[in-house]
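Figure S4 source data
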Amino acid sequence: MEFLNALWGYIALSAPYLLLGLTLSGFIKQFIPMEKVKKWLGRDNFSSVMKAAFIGVPLPLCSCSVIPTAVTLRKSGASKASTSAFLISPPESGLDSISVTYAMMDLPMTILRPVAAFFSAIVAGLFQMFFNKEEEVVEQTQEVQKSCCGSGMAKEISKDPIGTQIKNAFKYGFKDLVDDIAFWLLIGLVLGAIIQVLVPENFFELMSVNQSRFLILAVGIPVYICASATTPIAASLILKGMSPGTALLLLLVGPATNASNIMVLQKYIGKKGVALNVLAVVLVALGFSFFADFLYTNFLETNWAVGDLHNHAHITWWEKLSGVILSILILKGVMKEKVIPWFKKKGSDSCCG
């Protein structure tokens, strides 16, 4: 019963902000012309890297679905530098995960997360420019690799009436996108509730902050954790004594790197390029981790919203309603993407499983 109460608390607390994030993500996906993005990112210079990092921060692309989008950009003429920048910022942030961060943590962490993602992307792009020069001109082609996680952003914006485009925006946010992240979001919520119930108070005070950081890096780099799913886990770990900076490290490293994507990317930016991307993520994430701990130690208080999960009297009626809607969407997505394909013996085709 305690576990179910904690799980419902996480769902109800995050639901209004996540539903808002899904809505905004749908409109961004629908109304950002992909052809313009390709033109912005085509040159091997700092301006293209900046644009790629900036554009990628709010985009609703997980660590898996960003791959076909980045491949499309690369094949359409985008440089290694701008492609690498684009590969990093969307998985680390995205409007859906930013909104959940605000729901479960606080405003400073909500700001630090996308800012760190932006700088991670810039550093990765600069590393590619200086240490992984273009060896040949990329063939111009319109070939698109389909995402195993649902639709990416390779499709050009349609010329449909505005009403149809708005309908498509909601369809993407509340159908395609939520189906993509449903399984991993559920895993994150369940793990957050388990940590809340089973992990002893002040557990992480038994180890040093640097030991905690090393543990997060060791687990987060090779393992896939989507951005939205990391948030309840990080919030729960903070309540058990983990420093805010170490929690930020988890929010950045987990979504941006994983073993399967590293294997795919070697073909397009090379092994050296992949290593530079991982190095950029780790260095910037560590830097922001120390910076966050400095801020919270000297200037800020960790008055996390998730700290009141045990008190259901604080959950308003609209949070409860949003929680019910989110629960239905998550269950629908898990059924569609995991349960039904498993019974049809097609689950092994997913690169996100």
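Figure S5 source data
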Amino acid sequence: MKDISKYQGIIPAFYACYDEEGRISEERTKQWTKKLIELGVKGVYVCGSSGECIYQSKDERKKTLEAVVEAAEGKLTIIAHVACNNTADSAELAAHAESLGVDAVASIPPIYFHLPEYAIAQYWNDISAAAPNTDFIIYNIPQLAGTALTMPLFHEMRKNPRVAGVKNSSMPVQDIQMFKMYGGDDFVVFNGPDEQLVSGLAIGADGAIGGTYGAMVELYNKIFQLCRNNEYEKARRIQYACDAIIYEMCSAKGNMYAVIKEIIRRRYGIDLGDVRKPLFSLVPEDEVHIAKCVDMIQEAIADYC
């Protein structure tokens, strides 16, 4: 049976790190990587939605991943999201990721055109073939990709021995249960929606990948620990606190990742830069929301950690 322990834990989605001119900052990328190690996360999910991947070039994504791998020094599980909106570019990123020794590559389905499932399977299998010695993680996020991982498509992809898991960001937790039931004990299912981490873990998720984790790692680490100890009532209270913080983040006019980066700057003293247009930067009116989020995070850590 395959050992999936390297995927069992809290894996923050890695944020894009820019300099003052909006270019990828290797220095800030390394600084954030080292901070996450210090905070005790299991791994990082690099160049996904939180990494603003669809607004970056292949070379920028390569530069980010190279900096993360260098700074991690083998202390983190590293999953590289490599999907582009064409197979050739995605395969190039997958081969590059394997050359760096990442633990897994991951991919959403192709977006915009609604392709038949056999074409989606071919896309994923072609990407996987470009990294033949590396685990492949399917990223199921139908609300953004426009395509869901159906059970027939799931069973087709399970024919590929490199397919090791699913990052499931669909809202029904039943999807996690089904992927885990049919995937088996050595198949990894990651909970995607941050707002329902407790539910995902309770129904069978092995680990968790989330876009808000970096703002409040301490709380999510505690949730994971409590759930593993079957202390779900305590975990639920922290989940409610995290959800209230997320709702406050989403109340700002600026993009949520702009809000999170400012929270990180205030909490940890690390500047990750702005977000890339067309994502919307912070406006002065967002100050009240950011200050409230920081206070809510600190209060929840004091109460539960």
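The longest strand covers residues 135-140. The first helix runs from residue 26 to 38.
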